[in-house]
């Protein structure tokens, strides 16, 4: 019986030992301190980077802070300086952490080098006996690759990236590109680009993505070099491609108007429903680096009970806020000779054009460079345009058909007119401008009969709306 008890006790002890040996040996045991060891890639990659790894023998219940330092390279080796984080934290419950190491190759000549890094100390862990790693570098002087691009997207929605090597490489150079977090538009392009051996350049088309609900404004796409193989990144590693939306557009003042049938222009149509001044049907704006273009349509005045087109000189005004800032400039306090109140709200205008769309010259509409142009100077606190609060400068005789030019047609009771404005002459050298247009009845005391932009009446009352805004591409002299 005694022997049986001894045998059972031995089996229980063996079972207990077996059970204990099956526990996860990476768990921290009470009263024990984990050991931290160091390892790394044997050599630096082609971009002169390597990965160093710190490993704990078991997870710790608290953070382990490891201090790294440079060590002596092995005998007979030449040292290449290494750049890395000198303090690394292995978080509680974790068993490892990685560190990016970069070789500082500035000023090196071709040859074999080595970096040495050691664990200098550790808080919360013991340092393993082998606490030094060596990373080799076979340095071959590689050409630098730089990134360039067009400065803006055109109306084709495209631009071009260019990767250029300072000199041809003996092997294919692979460049990986990436979007920068500061981009405000989405773009599509090839992310991995190869420059074949013996060549020095590769072009990459970029297409900007325009969603259906994209608002007018100025945007940017920022693209960076993420990594390079068989070359090094040069000083130009990032590019910015600007987008002024709607796009820069080139219009031809030929009276054909087909180039206005594009979504790349800004449109301000007369709204459906009740309006106070119905003759003007639509206003469109477009711009490029030198000019702003305006297009408008009008319907026969007699269709609304006004003086017929053939007997109406159709006086008009064009209002221009040259800097797109309603807080600067002057305001007009009457809609027409019989109606007080601002035609637009807000205003902030700088230029005011007066003229007649029909001057009896024989053409359906008169040329615009014979109109009277006023400029508001020295505006005091948003003063009234026709008052001592504003110094008015008449620009009669100071411009010609290169500064303002218009052409139009009148067929089947519909008038179509397009006008070009020189951005330099009108000071529209910034990022936005605002426009408005008014047409009047010459036989009825110049009563307003057309106005754009315009909103619907409210309870039969006219309510002014903002002027038309055009975002401008970068100005070029």
Number of strands: 32
Main β-sheet description:
7 strands, antiparallel
Q: How much of the sequence is in beta strands?
A: 35-45%
Structural class: mainly beta
- Percentage of helical residues? under 10%
Which residue ranges are poorly predicted, with pLDDT under 50 across at least 5 consecutive positions?
1-26
What radius of gyration results from the CA coordinates? Answer: 37 Å
Mean pLDDT: 91
Name the overall outline: elongated
Count of DSSP-assigned helices: 1
Give the termini separation. 112 Å
What do you see in this structure?
There is one protein chain. The protein is mainly beta and 477 residues long. The chain has one helix spanning 2-21, and strands at residues 35-40, 49-56, 64-70, 82-83, 87-90, 96-103, 111-123, 126-127, 132-139, 144-149, 158-165, 173-179, 187-188, 192-195, 201-208, 217-229, 232-233, 238-245, 266-269, 280-287, 291-299, 315-321, 334-336, 339-340, 351-356, 372-377, 391-394, 404-411, 414-422, 432-441, 447-452, 468-471. The strands form 7 sheets. Strands 22, 25, 26, 27, 30, 31 and 32 form a 7-stranded antiparallel β-sheet that branches. A 5-stranded mixed β-sheet has the order 4-6-2-1-8, with no helix packed on it. A 5-stranded mixed β-sheet has the order 13-15-11-10-17, with no helix packed on it. Strand 10 (144-149) and strand 11 form a beta hairpin. The longest helix is centred in the first third of the chain and has 20 residues, at 2-21. It is elongated, with a radius of gyration of 37 Å. It starts with a helix and ends in a 6-residue tail after the last strand. The model is unreliable at 1-26 (pLDDT under 50).
């Amino acid at each position: 019986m005694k022997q049986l008890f001894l045998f059972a006790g031995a089996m229980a002890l063996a079972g207990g030992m077996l059970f204990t040996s099956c526990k996860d040996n990476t768990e921290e045991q009470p009263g024990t301190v984990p050991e931290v060891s160091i390892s790394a890639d044997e050599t630096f990659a082609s971009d002169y980077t390597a990965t160093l790894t710190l490993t704990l023998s078991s997870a710790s219940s608290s953070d382990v802070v490891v201090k790294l330092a440079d060590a002596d390279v092995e005998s007979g080796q030449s040292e290449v300086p290494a750049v890395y984080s000198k303090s690394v934290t292995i978080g509680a419950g974790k068993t490892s952490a990685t560190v990016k190491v970069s070789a500082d190759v500035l000023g090196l000549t071709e040859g074999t080098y080595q970096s040495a890094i050691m664990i200098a100390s550790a808080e919360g862990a013991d340092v393993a006996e082998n606490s030094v790693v060596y990373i080799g570098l076979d340095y071959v002087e590689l050409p630098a690759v730089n990134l360039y691009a067009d400065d803006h997207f055109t109306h084709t929605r495209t631009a071009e990236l260019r990767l250029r090597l300072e000199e041809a490489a003996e092997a294919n150079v692979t460049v990986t590109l990436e979007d920068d977090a500061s981009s405000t538009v989405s773009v599509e392009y090839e992310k991995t680009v190869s420059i074949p051996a013996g060549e020095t350049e590769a072009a990459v088309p970029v297409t900007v993505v325009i969603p259906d609900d994209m608002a007018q404004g100025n945007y940017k796409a920022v693209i960076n070099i993420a990594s390079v193989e068989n070359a090094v990144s040069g000083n130009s590693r990032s590019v910015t491609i600007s987008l002024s939306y709607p796009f820069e557009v080139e219009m031809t003042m030929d009276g054909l108007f087909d180039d206005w049938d594009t979504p790349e222009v800004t449109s301000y149509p007369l709204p459906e429903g009740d309006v106070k001044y119905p003759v003007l049907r639509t206003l469109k704006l477009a711009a490029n680096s030198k000019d702003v273009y305006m297009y408008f349509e009008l319907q026969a005045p007699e269709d609304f009970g006004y003086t017929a087109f053939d007997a109406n000189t159709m006086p008009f005004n064009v209002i221009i806020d040259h800097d797109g800032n309603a807080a600067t400039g002057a305001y007009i306090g009457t809609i027409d000779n019989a109606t007080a109140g601002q035609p637009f709200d807000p205003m902030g205008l700088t230029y005011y054009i007066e003229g007649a769309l029909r001057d009896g010259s024989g053409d359906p509409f008169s040329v615009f460079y014979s109109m009277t142009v006023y400029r508001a100077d020295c505006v005091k606190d948003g003063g009234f345009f026709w008052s001592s609060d504003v110094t008015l400068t008449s620009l009669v005789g100071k411009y010609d058909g290169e500064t303002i030019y218009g052409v139009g047609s009148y067929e089947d009771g519909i008038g179509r007119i397009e006008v070009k404005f020189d951005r330099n002459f009108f000071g529209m050298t910034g990022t936005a401008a605002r426009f408005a247009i008014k047409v009047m009845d010459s036989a009825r005391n110049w009563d307003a009969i057309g106005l754009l932009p315009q909103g619907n009446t409210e309870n039969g009352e006219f309510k002014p709306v903002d002027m038309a805004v055009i975002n401008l591409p970068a100005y070029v002299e």
